[in-house]
Amino acid sequence: KQWYQRRVRVPESGSWSDTVPDCIRQQCEVSEWSEWGECSVECEGGTQTRTRMVTSSHSNEINGDCPALTEERTCNARQCDTCKTIEFRTSIEADQCRSASEVTSRYCFGACREIGKCCGVTKRSIQSITLFCDNSPPRNFNLPVVEECGCTPCG
Predict the structure, then answer these.
(1) Which residues of 105-135 are buried (b: 16+ CB within 10 A; e: fewer)?
(2) What's the rounded mean pLDDT across residues 3-16?
(3) What is the mean pLDDT of residues 19-48?
(4) Is 17 helix (H, G, I), strand (E, B) or coil?
């Protein structure tokens, strides 16, 4: 619990006083601070807020201020990771085939700010392609495809 009292002008004398007559005293009782809330962003600086409430306020002739009921602080000031998926088109060819197939390929590129983490593949899939060749049956290829990149343990 915390009490707050402000200085007021005493009506009889017109002077300022910390000792305020009971008839005009303003007191405000507030709760303890709540836990800090979640940060507004994951990196590059956000804010967290915590609050408290007025539990009782005693006021007669004046309206004084209670202490602050919200408080903010900065959080997650580290730089964001730059690990991302880079996409490019490439051509797949097979021996003795006159046709080629264009596919979209992806790779992971960038940096991770956390020690012991490296930019790498976090999700893969398989892409099937078929090449049609002269005087032979179609040739099927299953290619691993990078779907997502992220910061994972190095090694």
Answers:
(1) bbebeeebeeeebebbbeeeeeeeeebeeee
(2) 56
(3) 78
(4) strand
